[in-house]
Design brief:
Helices cover about 40% and strands about 15% of the residues. By secondary structure, it is α/β, with parallel strands linked by helices. It has an 8-stranded mixed sheet with strand order 1-2-4-3-5-6-7-8, sandwiched between helices. Helix 1 (about 50-55) packs parallel to helix 10 and helix 4 runs antiparallel to helix 7 (about 210-225). The chain starts with 11 loop residues before the first strand and ends in a 6-residue tail after the last helix. Pfam families: Abhydrolase_1 (PF00561). It comes from Turneriella parva (strain ATCC BAA-1111 / DSM 21527 / NCTC 11395 / H).
Length: about 300
């Protein structure tokens, strides 16, 4: 069983619109002139973004939270599992920190959420950084195949009848020996040659503790939501980073966003997988620093 003994301590808990209490985290330079609101990825916890956060935290205040069903919020069972529910939670956190202008960062699913949140009200966003992003209908191209969207839909509809089996299968698969899980992910979602075990295990080990019902319903919600028609609302300076070897968020998705957002910056990490936030954090933070400096968004 995964242990939270070394997990980052939350700054506190904020109250969502439906009364749910969710943990939020504050890192970095608390006196910085700019605050980064960092939206994490699907099934991720604070360790996934830890290296990027540590570097950016020298100059910026960084605020983030654990989504319903993830990180410290994994234990509860939530009635509302949807994109709209998460967006309401982002609104609640933003209100909790004072509705201040933010540099909006997204990683993976966090990009999909960031674009939607910006679309609903872009006056609160002074800069946008999208890392290895998905932007809807993601399982149409997952692993560069077309088989996963039909599989997802079939599993979603069969779940009420196969609930115990599917939950047990998820837990068993994610409790295999670490070396086996690493081998299964190599070449598709991560590059273990560029990250050490201590950095990777907190993410991989916690997957077994996540509720498969949440995973399935949120996967379905992510897939059936799209950012199409929302990119023209991005008026703040925008940096988009993809990974050339990312088989989850294929680089073509990020390229499409770059083409849709006028004057955006785009960089693709050679050999970068979907885990590039850990594997290539130095390159990512270097590009972010240059972008923010050139756009007069550097911390004062």
């Amino acid at each position: 069983m995964y242990s939270f003994e070394r997990y980052p301590v939350p700054k506190g808990y904020f109250t969502a619109r439906d009364g749910v209490q969710l943990p939020w985290f504050e890192y970095g330079n608390l006196k910085a002139s700019h605050t980064i609101l960092f939206l994490n990825g699907f099934t991720c916890n604070q360790y996934n973004i830890a290296k990027v956060v540590a570097t950016l935290g020298v100059d910026y205040r960084i605020v983030t939270f654990d989504y319903r069903g993830q990180g410290l919020a994994y234990r509860e069972r939530y009635k509302k599992v949807s994109i709209d529910a998460v967006l309401d939670d982002i609104d609640a956190l933003h209100e909790h920190i004072g509705r201040i202008p933010v540099l909006l960062f997204g990683y993976s699913m966090g990009c999909q959420l960031a674009v939607e949140w910006n679309y609903r009200d872009n006056t609160r966003v002074i800069g946008l950084v999208l890392l290895l992003g998905i932007y809807g209908n993601i399982f149409d191209s997952f692993l560069n195949t077309k088989i996963f969207a039909p599989m997802l839909n079939a599993t979603y509809h069969a779940f009420p009848f196969l609930k115990p089996i599917l939950k047990r299968t998820w837990r068993t698969a994610h409790r295999l020996p670490f070396a086996i899980r690493l081998a299964l992910g190599k070449g598709t979602l991560l590059n273990p040659d560029r990250v050490n075990e201590a950095e990777l295990r907190p993410f991989l080990d916690q997957l077994a503790e996540l509720d498969f019902e949440y995973i399935l319903h949120m996967s379905h919600a992510i897939h059936h939501h799209t950012n199409e028609g929302q990119f023209d609302r991005i008026k703040a300076p925008c940096l988009i980073i993809s990974g050339e070897a990312d088989l989850f968020a294929l680089p073509q998705h990020s390229e499409r966003v770059h083409q849709a957002v006028a004057a955006s910056w785009y960089f693709s990490i050679p050999a970068g997988t979907h885990n590039a936030v850990l594997e290539h954090s130095e390159e990512i933070t270097s590009w972010i620093a240059e972008f923010l400096r050139e756009k007069n968004l550097a911390a004062g």
